[in-house]
Amino acid sequence: MKIEKNIPMEKDHAGRAGRPPKYPFANMEIGDSIFVDGAKIPCNEYAAAQRFASRHGWKFSGRCVDGGLRIWRIE
């Protein structure tokens, strides 16, 4: 086997590295919100927002509204 240098690593398509984000949390500014049709707290989307927030030092808040759930970025 020969050692080679300066060969860029390809993206891992089996893992998270190449997968686009499922939710737009990274693009949200304070005061922005998303609507999740038919959802109620607890739900996968709200849990995902809370995980994203804890990793990035942000805060989200969710409220059940007519027809679903709305999640706001509050900090």
Describe the protein's architecture and organization.
This protein has 75 residues and is α+β, with helices and mostly antiparallel strands. The protein has a domain at 30-73. The protein has one helix and three strands. The chain has one helix at 44-56, and strands spanning 33-37, 60-65, 68-73. Strands 1-3-2 form a three-stranded antiparallel β-sheet, covered by helices on one side. β2 and β3 (68-73) form a beta hairpin. The longest helix has 13 residues, at 44-56. It is elongated and about 65 Å long. The termini are far apart. The model has no long low-confidence stretch (mean pLDDT 85).
Itemize the secondary structure elements and their pairings:
Elements: E1 33-37, H1 44-56, E2 60-65, E3 68-73
Antiparallel strand pairs: 1-3, 2-3
Indicate the low-confidence ranges by residue numbers: none
| Beta-strand content estimate | 15-25%
Tally of DSSP β-strands: 3
Rg: 18 Å
Largest sheet: 3 strands, antiparallel
Average of the residue pLDDT scores: 85
Helix content: 10-25%
Describe the structure concisely for a colleague:
This protein has 75 residues and is an alpha+beta fold. The protein is built from one helix and three strands, in the order βαββ.
